[in-house]
Amino acid sequence: MSQTTSENIPIIDIGELVRGELNLQVAKKLRQASHDPGFIYVCNHGISESITDEARHAAKLFFLQTEDYKSSVSISKNHRGWLASGGAVMTDGVEADLKESFVWGHDARIDHRKAHSLQGKNQWPKQAIGFKKAAEAWLNSAERLAQILLKNIAFSLQLESNFFLRRNDNPLTRASFVYYPPRPMTVAPDPATARYGVGPHTDFGVMSILCQDHIGGLQMQNPQGHWLDAPPIDGTLVVNIGDLLQRWTSGEFRSAPHRVLSPDVTDRLSLVLAFDPNPESVVDAGEIFSEQRAATEPITCGDYLDWRFDQAFHYRAADT
Questions:
Q1: What pTM does this model have?
Q2: How far is 28 from 33, CA to CA, in rounded Å?
Q3: Is 238 left (phi over 0), alpha (psi -120 to 50) or beta?
Q4: Residue 56: which CATH number?
């Protein structure tokens, strides 16, 4: 497939929305971009450079530690902690991802015995000064941004602003630091044959927010099947629609396939937020559109994510 530049991925100034102002014109731009291409750059997003710099610094120090050190917080059954390289396969027929990740979220606000499989206690590395503080600051800031975006997307659909956030006091929202080691020299650089940092996939949940570093390598696939570079742009974050929001809007919004090509001679680091409401949240397109247009059956957020995570992550298969 051909590859082009990012010129067709819109950059949207959301400063007014971050300040709490309603702006139907900006909300409509978010809606259009969520429909096509499903990838958006946002600027004036309200997350300070100090928060991203501190998170990036803490993450880099962690990933450069020994495997023995990192394995002391190996991924738990609740998907919290360190996931080693090769621990995820995002697409059938593609080799396991080269990336490694550190994942955390909100501590479950209910009895852990009754929590969803993606809820539980966080695991924090020992003797990592400032790591937890930096990680939690990134999660909280990116989560607030996701809520602002979803309220304005609901506004653009003439829904109550909290439509997608009605059950969000015990969310499945997760954050991750994602580290891409340099690509092994034995791997061909051709995207058609390379082992990916992250293989082609769509995100499982409602919405993802990504803070890239300066290295690049992120690509998204447009509706015509072309791969577009989504390079880092100063002052912006990347927002992309996930499968659950595509399902919730009966395809009105697009969950765009994307991938990451691992760098050749240096490493790469990203900060990620995956926003999802409470596990019992019912994703039902019939609430937005007529039942005739709703192409899928209602499903809870928790059940859907269980199904997708079981397919993607080796450790969950080992636990069954």
A1: 0.90
A2: 9
A3: beta
A4: 2.60.120.330
Strand partners, 236: 43
| 88-102 b/e (C-beta count within 10 Å ≥ 16 → b) | bbbbeeeebbbbbbb
Domain with 279, as residue range(s), is 3-319
Burial of 253 (0-12, 13-18, 19+ CB in 10 A): buried
Tokens 């596990």 found at:
279
Residue 66 neighbours by CB under 8 Å, 6+ apart: none
Query: Position 203: which residue type?
Result: D
Residue 251's pLDDT is what? 92
315: pLDDT strictly greater than 50: yes
Which is nearest to 53 in space by CA: 208, 237, 213? 213
Tokens of 14: 């959301």
Domain count of the fold of the chain: 1
Q: What is the mean pLDDT of residues 202-222?
A: 94
Alpha helices (runs of H) in 98-194, residue ranges in sequence order: 131-156
